[in-house]
Amino acid sequence: MKIRHIGQLALLACLPAFFSARADDAKLLTRPQLSSAGAKSLLNAAEAEAKQRGMQVSIAVVDASGRLLAFTRMDDSQTGTDETAIKKARTAALYHSPGKVLAQRISQNQAFLATLPGITAVPGSCPVMEGKYLIGAVGVSGATDDLDNAVATDTATGFHS
């Protein structure tokens, strides 16, 4: 009789480990991440659109934490545009908002936003989303606000993994 119940006891002994593993799953998040290949794809798309519009700009692609993944400064672009493109992209990633929206909010009596760490609240950046998750952002600098914004927005919203 003792041998017959050993299998059932072994099964019962494993249950706490099973439920413990399920509880630990709630402590971790699984989210999509922008790969190096994805960043290069975004960069190439933005550069192609900028060329089509006759723009000479700098383009930056960052990951969800605002770290640079891909960058280019097109021929004949202004030298100061490189840091600005990176800062624009970083702002969009860190604050989950296009730079144009942040700039509008600041002009609508929400000036405190300008004091946030690392913020560059000007048009020309857009978050890149994968479903409900922000996976990165694109920043463009060197043309007019409207053109920078159009390239960044079109590139980010046109991204498909």
Automatic annotation (TrEMBL):
Which Pfam family name is an example for this entry?
A: HbpS-like
Which keywords accompany this UniProt record? Signal
Q: Which residues belong to the signal peptide in this entry?
A: 1-23
In which domain of life is the source organism classified?
Answer: Bacteria
The record, for SUPFAM superfamilies, names:
GlcG-like
Presence of keyword Transferase: no
The protein's name in its UniProt record: Heme-binding protein
State the organism of origin: Komagataeibacter xylinus NBRC 13693
Q: What is the lineage of its organism?
A: Bacteria, Pseudomonadati, Pseudomonadota, Alphaproteobacteria, Acetobacterales
